[in-house]
Design goal:
Length: about 1700
């Protein structure tokens, strides 16, 4: 678009806007004159605001006057008008503006004038901006021209200098320099030519810009006067604004004075209100003082009563403290007495232990004397004693049980008697006043319930630790039962309850320890429900039925989709609630999760825990209501142990389809003791040695205990330690203090039964007192801890005293006691803590030759821990020489390796001995002892050297000494002593293994390998030894590499390791070599390798391409070359392409082809080509990651399934809510009664069946059925793009190479190629998620404008979103500046998650398909938008043949219609509008010009002819505007309605498309007559225009009196064409027609006749027909032909005349003048 067009567009816009605003405002002012006065103030305010905005320096008003360069360019593209027309319009605007200015000098400027002024200022600013830009362009062009000229001068000088040098070198004969200078000369000439071409282009462009600048200056000169007027108007407008501002300031001052007056009045009212408030406040204060005095008096009285009450409470507290102090003193005295008792018991136990030991020793001696087994007899004796003790304990236990049973029977009898007394009292009350039947029924019900549960008297028999909560539980259960309504009966029952509550069997030992406030809980009278139960039979029946319905409604079957749910409705995590190792008094919490495992919605209700756990377990459970399948809820279980006892039970829940329970277990701290072994074998040792072994005692429990290690009864191998009676007595007492787990009323007795110890009654009583001490400690925490500490200290002191006494009077062992060989270490007793272990030492000191055996026992203070036993054995020998280490272990040995060890031999003899060392015959070749003979001195040592060299024949030679499976060698060695028959033996142990390394495979063939790539193969290296071995591949050739670790490493025993051998040929030849692997013992293992090196004819510049991280739908490009370096067959100068030692590849064009896998995101361009020798071919590799269609289809199916599941869930929730409302409505109608569970069951079944139908009704489509253009496919693709996490793919693309050129006709199949010459291209393709995506148009990256008419503009909006977590700065690629696409609004930055709009416009300038790409670049990725648009030139087909639509003749003031059709032959909808030239806006200007018949133009340009006098249009068209779809047509109706007679009615019809382009022009013609006949034909004798003066029509009387009009003239010229041989007669026609009309009914046709026929015939004229009639609506032709007569003079034309008479409604005469002449060709 040129600058001239821009200027035209600006002027056209200015003129059109000014004219439109001026006309509209004038019309509005004319039509709304009465309302202007009312809206004057509003107009002024609006104008002021508009003017203020327009004059803002940095606001939006500045943008009204100045628009951006892009908008100027858009407007310049739209402009298409000429300069001349705009100058006329601007002149008119100037004149109109001057007139308005003269008329309104002293008046306020109107709103339309202000807007017109702003528009003019904007247009003038645009013109100034264009002038500035053009001036800048001219300056740049001149600078470029001067720079270009400077470069031309420099190049010219360089060329001249080069020519001079060429001449000099030619004279010198330097050929190389001549060639170099000639090449430089050619380059300089080429550059000089380019610079001259550039100079001419710049000069031409500068000339055009200067010309355009001149035009701009001319246009600025035209607007000079308008600019001055505009400045005057702006000054006037500013002056008016200042005046209005002063008026407004005055108004504001007046308003401020009024506001100040109002403020003063308001302050006055506020002061009056404040005075009234002060008066009221003073009165309120006085009243408050009076009330305060009265309140103080009452407060003094209340305080005195409170002090009296506090004094009473203090007295009670002091009494209570005195009682407690007395209890503590008594407790201290009891402790002292217990200590004395314990001392006596310990002394007695010690005496009994000594006596038992003496008896045991006597028994042992007697058994030995008889020759029996001492251990067996003593063990049997102990069993008999234990059995007798157990019998005695069982008998005592039976007696105590009988006593308890008798006591309970007596209590039950007492309870029965009390119940009888209750009944007797009730009957007495009934006899006094008979109760009604309903009350009797209530009494029976109460008695039944009272008997069903335990009475308060029975509660005393419960465990001593039972808290009031148990009683409250009974009360809670019984609270649902109604007591009697009569007051007397209630009083009686409460009295009995009080008596029973006071009768308790357990009494405290010390007064004051047990509070009377902990009595059994009694229900208050006000808590009893006075409402009685129904007593009639009907009510009982209804009660029973409701109870059955309630029970049946609790549990319902759950059936979903025809399957009944069976099993536990809820799963718990964890499945067992286990509180391990708890401490009494502490609180433990556990959280469990209940998961709905049923098929549908379920409920969960807590029923409770086991009865015996209610005092310790507290369940916190908030019912969650409805729970869908798979949902979960939480349950918190709180455990506060009060007794030290194992508890087991369960937590019960109730679900919709049944109850379920979770097992609960609480375990106390226990001792879990174990030994690591039960037998210690010392082996064989020489007398006099000392050997020690350790055994480990482990406690895996959470409770510690004391242990004691001693020998079993009757064993003489160990030293024993006696257990003091103090420890046995103190530990149960301490256990009784802390344990609260005993269930009976005498917990100490039960513990004693469990321990199975015989305790005297005195002892029992003392321990019971100790237990009472523990009870008092629980009530008084501050005192209890100190007492426990004191007790433990006293116990320790007593133990120390007893040990001192034992030391003073030790027990003497019997004289026949044997020496002890197996003894214990230092640790024989002590404390073992929780989760700990202790090492116990056992020492073996052989003193007598023979076998030694001992039994040991570990006892524990904890009575629940059983004793542990272990045995110790050993053998002692008596020889003068022995080997300290009889087992020589050589560990693991390898074949053919020498191993040595030193064997020490010791002697206890008092003289020197000669020794001889022997090896068994089987191993004489493998093992040797040096020296073979030696002397060992008295009581000294001797060293022997052992040498072991295992050979591969060892398995066969060793025989029985070698195990082939385990490869273990055990060889006995013998030491012979002189003069001794018994030899000394020791054993040599060794594990023999091989040192082999196995390589698999033994031979490797790499095959064919090009010199541009490496071939890799894997071998397996296996260690056959059971020892780790280091290895390494040494002496590798330069073309071989071994990985990992370069072929070095360590192999573990029997391990296999995979090694990669990489071979890279350095030249084309056959390779054969060996690889050597060495082990750490310097053994070598060989690997044979073969390969063939290949030198391909072509090579790749890069064999590995690593693409950058590329976003989805983005493209990354890499460039490489295919090089043909093969230019010579001389193999001595350079490497030539060949396969091994094969033939050399021919020199010539070589073809290649890349084979890209299908469905891969990689594209190679070109994939096929030919490279000439010494050349290279550019290859571009494109990586465009996309999502596979199969993956998108599968995601679409999953999304459909999720949507269906969501809909089903919502439907289910909706149905459940509707059913719930329905149930609530039904429940409300039943007089407030609660609905039964049966009412809920049936709707649930209906819902479940509906759900099953709904769930079974949906069938997900197959992935193949999802279409690529469907919404599901697009949504799935968008979801996958957003959730894409990235992936990495690796491709290896083969490139096949063949010698020869690719023939397009034949194809590439005929080229011979070798697969060994194949090149490989490796591609690393990482794909990441895009940072910017398109959210509009279903996420498509294609902007398709479709078909758009040429010259028409469409703008589309594209929405982009930042889906990354960072702010992105965006950049955009440049679209073609001369193209039809334009980016209207670029975006600078995008915040995370932000959406922005891009506006792209499309305005095609020709009919073709347009395509461009817009790259949206960010720091991470590039988003490419493909922009497509098709410019279509709109085309139509019109049914009107030619360019004229003749409406024919019509009677004046009548109408005639005609129809024509326009068809849309283009491919886009056409918006059309029909315009008439007679109604155009420029019609008035055209009428001011001279007529065409005066100016004599080359052709008629004015199509508008005669118009109606009435001002209405002669021609009317319907429809005027609309849209024609592609391939469709539109019918148009043209109505011709003249209002007076004329033969020159005409107009021009224009079909305008899209409001811009004129697609078709049709000339509309018509004629009107006042009479029914007309004559048409002949030459025109007048102009086709009529005078503007309207002639008065003829009166009716004159028309009737004069039926004939004066004759009209017709000119008919005929030309006879004379040829050389013959001539062509001249022929013309006259048309006689009759107009079809409803008028003139008396005349149905028109008659015509032509006179003077003989005269005409004489002159050569022939006329047919001469007369005739013409019917209405018909036309007849009169043919006139002329042939020159014989006497015709060619130099003078022939003239003749005749009269044509027409008779219709009137008679008309036409004088026809014939003029004939002869024309020669």
């Amino acid at each position: 678009m040129t600058l001239l067009g821009e200027l035209n567009s600006i002027k056209r816009i200015a003129s059109m806007e000014d004219i439109e605003f001026f006309d509209i405002c004038e019309k509005e002012q004319t039509a709304a004159t009465p309302f202007l006065e009312q809206e004057k103030d509003d107009d002024d305010s609006v104008t002021d605001q508009f003017w203020n905005v327009a004059n803002q320096p940095n606001g939006k008003g500045h943008k009204i006057g100045e628009e951006s360069e892009e908008e100027n360019k858009i407007r310049s593209k739209d402009a298409s008008e000429g300069v001349g027309e705009d100058s006329d319009s601007s002149g008119e605007i100037q004149e109109r503006h001057m007139n308005n200015g003269n008329n309104n000098n002293n008046k306020t400027m109107k709103y339309a004038d202000r807007v017109q002024m702003l528009n003019l200022r904007r247009n003038l600013n645009q013109l100034d901006n264009i002038a500035k830009e053009k001036d800048l362009t001219i300056e740049k062009a001149r600078e470029e021209l001067s720079a270009c000229q400077l470069r031309i001068e420099m190049l010219t000088k360089e060329r001249e200098c080069t020519e001079t040098k060429i001449e000099e070198e030619k004279e010198a004969g330097n050929t190389a320099a001549i060639f170099r200078l000639q090449a430089m000369h050619r380059r300089l000439c080429a550059e000089l030519g380019n610079e001259k071409d550039l100079e001419s282009k710049i000069a031409l462009m500068l000339k055009e810009n200067v010309y355009e600048m001149w035009q701009i200056e001319i246009e600025q000169g035209k607007f000079g006067s308008l600019r001055e007027l505009l400045e005057q108007d702006e000054e006037e407008l500013e002056r008016q604004c200042k005046e209005r501002a002063e008026q407004r300031i005055q108004k504001e001052k007046t308003a401020a004075q009024l506001a100040e007056r109002k403020q003063q009045v308001g302050k006055k009212k506020e002061m009056e209100a404040w005075e009234a408030y002060e008066r009221r406040h003073q009165k309120v204060v006085e009243d408050a003082h009076r009330n305060h005095e009265k309140a103080v008096q009452f407060l003094k009285k209340s305080m005195s009563r409170i002090r009296q009450k506090e004094a009473k409470e203090e007295l009670k507290t002091q009494e209570h403290m005195e009682k407690r102090m007395q209890a503590v003193l008594s407790l201290k005295n009891n402790i002292t007495s217990n200590r004395e008792t314990l001392r006596t018991l310990q002394v007695r136990d010690k005496a009994k232990a000594l006596e038992a030991k003496k008896q045991e020793m006597k028994m042992r001696g007697a058994i030995l004397a008889e020759g029996g087994n001492v251990t067996k007899e003593i063990f049997l004796h102990k069993q008999r004693v234990e059995l007798e003790r157990q019998k005695q304990e069982f008998t005592e236990q039976q007696k105590s049980r009988k006593i308890e049973i008798v006591a309970r029977i007596l209590q039950e009898e007492a309870c029965v008697e009390k119940q009888k007394k209750h009944q007797a009292r009730a009957e007495a009350l009934r006899s006094q006043g008979k109760l009604p039947d309903s009350l009797q029924w209530r009494i029976k019900t109460w008695q039944y319930i009272e008997n069903a549960y335990e009475d308060p008297a029975g509660a005393v028999l419960q465990k001593s630790w039972c808290t009031p909560s148990a009683c409250s539980l009974v009360d809670d259960k019984s609270s649902s039962v109604v007591d009697f309504s009569e007051k007397a009966l209630q009083d009686t029952i409460h009295e009995n309850d009080d008596e029973e509550a006071n009768e308790t069997l357990v009494e405290p030992e010390f007064t004051g320890l047990w509070s009377q406030e902990c009595n059994l809980y009694k229900m208050p009278k006000d808590e009893t429900d006075p409402k009685p139960l129904g007593a009639s039979k009907m009510e009982r029946k209804i009660f029973t039925e409701n109870l059955e319905k309630l029970r049946s409604g609790i549990i319902r079957k759950q059936v979903v989709s025809g399957h009944e749910f069976k099993g536990c409705p809820f799963y718990s995590k964890p499945s067992l609630i286990h509180f391990k190792d708890f401490d009494v008094g502490k609180t433990y919490k556990k959280k469990i999760i209940l998961i709905n495992a049923s098929y549908s919605v379920n409920f969960c209700k807590l029923v409770g825990v086991s009865e015996h756990l209610k005092d310790f377990i507290n369940i916190h459970f908030d019912p969650p209501g409805q729970m869908s399948a798979g949902m979960s809820c939480e349950v918190v279980v709180t455990f506060k142990p009060m007794i030290n006892e194992v508890l087991e039970g369960k937590v019960t829940f109730l679900a919709q389809n049944g109850s379920f329970s979770i097992p609960l277990k609480c375990t106390i701290k226990r001792c879990v003791l174990a030994l690591d072994k039960e037998l210690i074998d010392f082996g064989t040792h020489v007398v006099g040695e000392t050997i020690s072994r350790t055994i480990i005692l482990t406690n895996r429990g959470a409770l510690g205990t004391r242990f004691k290690l001693q020998t079993s009864a009757g064993d003489n191998g160990t030293c024993t330690t006696a257990k003091s009676s103090l420890e046995r007595m103190v530990s149960p007492a301490l256990d009784g203090i802390t344990s609260e787990e005993k269930a009976s009323s005498s917990p100490v007795e039960s513990s004693l039964y469990e321990n199975k110890e015989q305790v005297s009654p005195v002892h029992t009583e003392e321990v019971r007192q100790t237990y009472m001490l523990g009870e008092s400690q629980k009530t008084e925490n501050n005192l209890g801890s100190s007492h426990v500490e004191q007790l433990s200290q006293d116990a320790l002191i007593t133990k120390a005293d007893l040990e001192a006494e034992n030391a003073q009077s030790p027990a003497e062992p019997p004289p026949e006691e044997e020496p002890i060989e197996i003894t214990l270490g230092k640790v024989t007793e002590g404390e073992i803590g929780p989760f700990s272990s202790i090492k116990l030492q056992v020492i073996f000191t052989p003193s007598v030759p023979g076998d030694v055996h001992a039994e040991f026992e570990i006892t524990f203070d904890n009575p629940n821990c059983k004793p542990l036993h272990f045995s110790v054995i050993g053998v002692s020998v008596d020889v003068p020489v022995w080997v300290p280490n009889p087992n020589v272990d050589l560990k693991i040995c390898m074949y053919d390796r020498l191993y040595q060890d030193c064997i020490i031999i010791r002697s206890r003899a008092k003289a020197a001995l000669r020794l001889k060392f022997e090896v068994c015959k089987e191993l004489s070749n493998h093992m040797e002892l040096l020296p073979k003979t030696g002397y060992i001195q008295a009581q000294s040592s001797f060293s022997v050297q052992l040498k072991f060299l295992p050979r591969h024949s060892l398995p066969e030679d060793a025989g029985k000494y070698f195990d082939t499976e385990t490869r273990v060698l055990e060889v006995p060695m013998t030491i012979m002593i002189a003069d001794k028959t018994k030899p000394i033996e020791f054993i040599v142990h060794a594990i023999v293994t091989t040192s082999d390394l196995e390589i698999s495979p033994a031979e490797v063939n790499f095959g064919y390998c090009t010199i541009y790539e490496a071939v890799q193969t894997t071998i397996t290296l296996t260690n056959k030894s059971i020892l780790p071995q280091e290895f390494g591949f040494v002496g590798l050739p330069e073309f071989v590499d071994i990985q990992p670790s370069d072929g070095f490493g360590t192999l573990l025993p029997l391990e296999s390791l995979n090694l990669d051998i990489i071979f890279k040929a350095n030249k084309a030849k056959e390779y054969s070599f060996e690889l050597t692997c060495k082990s750490e013992i310097n053994r070598q293992f060989k690997l044979s390798c073969k390969a063939v090196g290949v030198h391909p004819p072509l090579e790749l510049s890069h064999s590995l391409v690593k693409f950058a991280a590329t976003a989805l739908n983005d493209v990354s490009t890499a460039t490489l070359y295919v090089i043909n370096a093969h230019v010579s067959l001389n193999r001595f100068t350079h490497a030539v392409p060949r396969i091994g030692k094969g033939e050399i590849a021919p020199v010539g064009p070589t073809s290649f082809e890349f084979l890209v896998p299908e469905d891969s995101p990689v594209t190679i361009m070109p994939s096929v080509g030919t490279v000439l020798p010494g050349k290279k071919c550019l290859i571009q590799v494109y990586f465009r990651p996309v999502l596979s269609e199969q993956l998108i289809r599968e995601e679409a199916v999953q999304m459909l399934c999720r949507e269906d599941a969501q809909r089903t869930m919502l439907k289910k929730i909706h149905e459940s809510e509707m059913q719930k409302r329905k149930d609530e409505t039904v429940a409300g109608k039943k007089d407030g009664k609660k609905p039964s569970f049966a009412a809920f069951r049936q709707p649930l079944r209906v819902r479940s069946s509906k759900h099953a139908a709904a769930s079974s009704g949906f069938e997900p489509p197959k992935p193949e059925e999802i279409k690529t253009n469907s919404e599901e496919y697009i949504a799935a693709q968008y979801s996958l793009i957003r959730n894409f996490t990235g992936k990495f793919e690796r491709y290896i693309i083969p490139c096949f190479v063949a010698s020869g050129d690719i023939d397009e006709k034949i194809g590439s199949e005929n080229l011979k190629y070798s697969p060994y010459n194949t090149l490989y291209l490796e591609l690393h393709c990482p794909a990441v998620a895009p940072s910017v995506v398109v959210t509009s148009n279903n996420g498509k990256n294609i902007v398709n404008f479709g078909e758009v008419a040429v010259g028409h503009r469409i703008i589309k909006r594209i929405t982009i979103q930042n889906i990354s977590q960072e702010q992105l700065a965006l950049g955009f690629s440049i679209l073609n500046p001369n193209g039809p696409f334009l980016l209207v609004s670029p975006v600078g930055t995008l915040e995370p998650g932000e959406n922005q709009f891009l506006f792209i416009s499309f305005c095609p300038n020709e009919s073709k398909l347009f395509f461009e790409t817009l790259d949206i670049r960010s720091i991470k990725a590039t988003l490419t938008l493909s922009i497509i648009g098709h410019g279509v030139a709109p085309s139509i087909a019109c049914s009107v043949e030619g360019e004229v639509l003749d409406m024919g003749y019509v009677i004046a003031k009548e109408k005639v219609t005609s129809t024509f059709k326009i068809q849309n032959t283009s491919t886009l909808p056409l918006r059309y509008s029909i315009k008439l030239e007679s109604l155009s806006q420029t019609r008035d200007k055209e009428q001011q010009r001279l007529p065409f018949f005066i100016t004599s133009p080359p052709g008629r340009t004015d199509f508008v002819g005669t118009q109606n006098y009435s001002g209405l249009s002669v021609f009317n068209i319907f429809p005027v505007e609309g849209v024609i779809e592609p391939g469709k047509s539109q019918d148009f109706t043209v109505t011709f309605s003249p209002d007076h007679e004329s033969l020159y009615y005409s107009d021009c019809l224009k079909v305008v498309l899209f409001g811009k382009e004129i697609a078709r022009e049709i000339w509309l013609k018509g004629a009107a007559r006042n009479h029914m006949m007309f004559v048409e034909g002949g030459d025109p004798l007048d102009v086709p225009l009529e005078s503007l003066a309207r002639t008065s029509p003829m009166s009716e009387e004159a028309a009737k009196g004069e039926l004939e009009e004066p004759a009209k003239s017709l000119l008919l010229s005929l030309e006879y064409i004379q040829a050389e041989t013959s001539g062509t007669p001249a022929v013309r026609e006259l048309k006689i027609g009759a107009i079809r009309t409803a008028q003139f009914a008396s005349k149905k046709n028109v008659e015509f006749s032509l006179d003077s026929l003989p005269v005409l015939q004489q002159k050569g004229f022939t006329i047919e027909p001469v007369k005739g009639t013409v019917d209405r609506g018909q036309i007849k032709c009169i043919s006139v032909s002329w042939v020159p007569p014989a006497d015709f003079d060619p130099d003078h034309p022939l003239m003749a005349a005749a009269v044509l008479t027409l008779k219709g409604d009137i008679k008309e005469s036409y004088k026809v003048l014939f003029i004939a002449r002869v024309v020669c060709t």
